[in-house]
Amino acid sequence: MSVPTIHRVIDFINKAAGIVLTTEKAYFIDARLSPVIREENLPSIDELMNRAERGDRRLAQRVIDALTTNETFFFRDKSPFEHFKTIIIPELLARRPAGKTLRIWCAACSSGQEPYSLVMILDEMKAQLGGRNVEIHASDISESILTKAKSGVFNQFEVQRGLPTKMLLQYFTKDGDNWKISQDVVRRVNFFKFNLLDEPRALGTFDVVFCRNVLIYFDRTTRAAIFERLADRLAPDGYLLLGGAESTFGVTDRFTSHPKERMLQVPVPKRAATMPAAAVRPAIA
Amino acid sequence: MKYCLVVDDSSVIRKVARRILEGMQFEIAEAEDGKQALDACSARMPDAILLDWNMPNMDGYEFLTLLRKMSGGDRPKVVFCTTENDVAHIAKAMDSGADEYVMKPFDKDIITSKFGEVGLV
User: Fold this and answer.
1) Model pTM?
2) What residue in B sits closest to A77 (Cα-Cα)?
3) Which single residue of A173, B6, B36, B95 could bond B31 by disulfide (Cβ 3.0 to 4.6 Å)?
């Protein structure tokens, strides 16, 4: 792959999805796009990029799907789910009037393990919830990974990473060599495609946003803009959960740490911005 | 340092498991079947047991049943590690006192995850 081609791909994925790749990632680009050109019967990555850039939305989406990272597992990192169970839900139940629906958004849900983990936690907290309606919305930029998420089918390796065996027995059935999560769990999640570069105003207001292990792929300006938009989508007393390597510190002044738990982010009232935020860019996908 | 007994009739599996668990700071002993494992537990009760199901002389299920009746035999965290990957086997193991269940093939991530589930990591 030539240097101009590498730069072409890097520019495309940055404009389309905000993802920052460097020239050192040439092997990664080649490894991810080579299967696409084979399957599409195209002569080269350059030709793939020609078509994607000229407005072939299907091929553009294939490039995005191929270059996004979908590493995830059930109850990943444990502590965010513990905070959800022991801090967030009890505080929300205490503050929100009975009958008020709680809304949760997994903003980069990948193959669905994160929202499904939340469904299982909420199922265990059924008595505490007392019939309260909880909506779980889950989005990703990759159409292929959303198809997998909606299927609720996971391989043997996936169900052994983070998922306790008791939950495997309780919520899954064997499906050939794979495991299929109960339709009752699948039905609890509203999956939809969403690009974090887009304006999420139409999605409404959320009580909790999980946006974990995705902002590490963006530059600081893009992260600041996304934090700004997520803060606007959160209830004033809502919660933001980030990945272990992600922080709002030094990037935005719209969030601060929860008094009980440093890793948990809560919005601060909007005031005159002291840090510049990037403009919302139109998404190709 | 926590002490883990690896019970498997395959020397290759024992070697792989030993390498992973030593990397997790466990002291390791090995047994080739359930009988050897019971002897090892009588001599020194482990903190954890990684246990195969199908073995000669005494299988993992029979070993687990006898272990839980031994004095102090309720203490070790037992993680099955077997090619048996159907719901019936998994349920039988968990109902009989296993703490976690690994379906082979496994890797470091899976062992770390399962040992973490039972508070060993």
Assistant:
1) 0.92
2) B113
3) B36
